[in-house]
Amino acid sequence: MVVLDAAHGGDDTGGHSGNWTEKAFTLEFSVRLRSLLAARGMEVVTTREQDVTLDAERRDEIANHAQAQACLSLHATLSGSGVHLFASSLQPVEPAQFVPWKTAQGTAVARSLELAGVLNSALGQAGLNVTLGRTALPVVDSMTCPAVAVEVAPDPSSEQTATASLNDAGYQAKVAEALAAALVEWRSGGLGEGSPDNGSRRGAHAP
Amino acid sequence: MIPRYQTVLFFLLLAASVIMGAALWQLRNRAEERRQEAQASTPTQAPLVAPAVQATLMVASDADDSMSERILSLPLPPSADARARAILGKLLDLYAAPGAAHPVQGGASAITQVFLMPVSAGGAGASGNTGNGGAKNGPEMAVVNLAGTFAASHPSGIETESLTVLSICATLHANLPQVTEVRFLVDGEERETLAGHADLTRTYLTAEAEPAVVGAQP
User: How many CB pairs below 8 Å do chains A and B form together?
Assistant: First the structure.
């Protein structure tokens, strides 16, 4: 199972410029990726299917209850170029019966880095410009699944404006196809197995 | 029956009152604007009489999500707090310059204050200013107070926001090695994120702000 979290939504537009909003992009991209994954026989849970306000805790509840093999937090930006992948900057910690909500990702961060590597490889093979980093992102930091924030930035090879590049269906499809291929590889390679969320005995304290 | 001249006089006085009121309102607004401009132009750099010392800026680049070291000679005040503010102001001046690799508006005025305080055993301490230096007094936390206008105009995105935060942390640590922790405020208050992504509620450890890619620029 894969969890797709379309960031922002409702009152929270995320980044915006003119008529372009990050919340609309992430929702559209989430639907596109969900379709590709479903077509490959993967079960997908999305945190939102429409333009609604959703706080970080609710997103994490959905992701953590799904006990997913992989969780992707989908973002977009008009800055930089290509695709930016971010794993949590939390230090790895040993799985425990209960872990603090705000640092729950610490138990899965090692596998999150592996997932980021698989995504990086697939995006690179698709000819996309990828940067890989670690950061503090509250939504990702509270997830117990292998989690990566995927931030889609304008296509560096495009001569279009930043917003036009992001709205380009061909570019979106290329990124989504590469991510779907990576997630299939992640599942088939069994790399998502053994996550601490596979058993109900483990969980995270809600804040 | 009110005489006609009294009615005319009344309306004349009323009109004069309205005009004077509007004029006063305009004058008040202008005075407020002048006051704010004066505040905004408060120098963040030391007077030129201060001795020039080398400062290391960790300059971010959006192109490859990296930071590169840039060494400049700047006149800096002796006080550690003022020095930190001046150095960060210079860093943000670079970001506000045309053609910057990490374009962010705001410049030096985006750093309203920088406070340094000792790190207590259980986390951040809250005792007084350490003046100049502090390395011999143990690790310190820097509290960076950003202007609300800077946060409001900052480009939204995980990469760009993280680079701003990490380059501030790395620059502080490069120039004030005793600074091991950094916290951020916006207009003096805690804020969840910089522009929708980078977490500003946490304490950043400068040891974790090491750039992924470091290059040296002359």
Answer: 79
